[in-house]
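Narrative of activities, Objective 1.

The group set out to show that a structural description can be obtained from nothing but a protein's sequence at a throughput compatible with the screening campaign. Below is one input-output pair from the validation batch, recorded exactly as produced.
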Amino acid sequence: MSSPAPGTPRPRGPGWSRRHLLGLLAAGVGTLGACSALPTSGEVFTGGVISDDDAQLVQTAEGPIRGAGPEVIVQGFLRACAAGFSDGFATARSFLFPTLSETWNPTEAVRVYAGSTAPTVKQGPNGAVNVAAELLGVLDSTRVFTAQPDPNYSESLSLATTSQGQWRIVALPMGVLLSSSSLAASFADCFLFFLSSDCTRLVPELRWFPRRRLLVSLVEALLKGPSPWLAAGVISAVPEGTALVGDGVKVDGSTATVLLSAQAASASPRVQALLVDQIKGTLLQVGGVAEVVVTADSAPMESSAGLIASTAPSAGSLVGIAGGEVVQGVEEPRSVLVNADVLEGLEPRHPALGPDRTVYLVSGERLMRISADASEVAEAAVLGPGAVLPPVVDRHGWVWTGAAGALSVLNAQGARAELDAAWLSGAEVLDLDLSCESERLAVRYTKEGRTHVGVAAVRRNERGQPVGLGEPLALDVAAGWGLAWQDPVALVALEEGTDGVSMVRRTLVGGTSSITAGVAGAGRVVADRVGGDILLSDGAGQVWQRAGATWRSLGADVSDLAYSLS
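Output recorded for this entry:
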């Protein structure tokens, strides 16, 4: 089978392709995925033929019909907008008055509605034409997709006749209105890769890019830096003033050569190597690209820094409670981390495993710490009255949990980190989970009577201590319960279904969402943060694992399951 043309995003699936990931690790490149989603096992989704050159799927639309009335003109304009990313919006502009055609910016905002529900177009008594649609979300000028909290959208378009008596649009909002299918045809959802605060991990950010000139668009966006919501917790190795020169990105067979300006050559060898990793991680996700060469002022840059990729957790990272003991794994054989004798007098719940193999667990209002060899059991902190959220230990050894609605972050000695996070002031924290590289926190919280879900970047000092949270990127999953990272850019949560069957909603951070049936009575969801594995616990104590299109029972004798961070 021949390789896809460069610029073709690889197929989408629910989990990582282990073969692809291992190949990248062998090459020393810490890349995390593929354009159009986190890749390639399981069901395959495609979005049409995509190419980085002009030999791609082209959409067309007709221009204005002579003598057409206002409603027909607006309907034709909407169709032309859907084809605008193929013809540079030339046809869409032909529906506008010349003065508006010069100032209208179609890419300032892309408003996306469900493809199954076409917008309604109706002329009002004042002559203006109203367009109404049920929005899924908005893609802004930085190519970040945000779910729409209020799906009811309407816009008013004013029209006037030209000197030839033809109706044309004279006033309309900036941006375009596209169906979800048109979005998939015109855009590829891809990842830009930035650096964790300690420069040891790659952190992905999902953005949407027009399929034309995809490679160039990806590098241009990478050079501009992360989105404001992510910038608080990541860094970029791009030297100030660095830009693409000449053709920007040249493709020869399966090799993409990135042409950077002289500013990149002025960086230290270490910074150059980190920048190369960012660029390689970003471009190797694109189908047909097997090798990336980066040059600065026409000279090759330093080779990869060999960043640590976020790999799928081992089976030993799954811990739970069984028979009053802390165990690893669900199915036999499994091992005991902390036996019942050590836990005598405690009510062990919600175990979590730290990077040094220290075990943390909840007992009533207390957070307990148990050394790796189980020789020491100590009270790490008293968290306060009410339910204590299952703790998560980040890769720096900080424990994230909550009690009485307040977020708590503690070190091994129980000292609390003071977080600068004004948006959580007055909020009640309901659920939380950390991403695979520990740089992004997902939180479900209530504030002023409303429930929200947001993902915020974690700001750390030079010792890895959390010191604050960036402003959150809002996600449209507030109606459910439970929250878990399924892979580096996707969260899963539970929602009410019919006949007592809970539904599992998967939402891309900066992208769209989908929903599948779970199991009856599911009350908790956990996931492995990288490999796509999802576990559900029901009211009868059964643990269920997603297996293809169905769920299989793993047994009923292990509770409070949690995946540990690597």
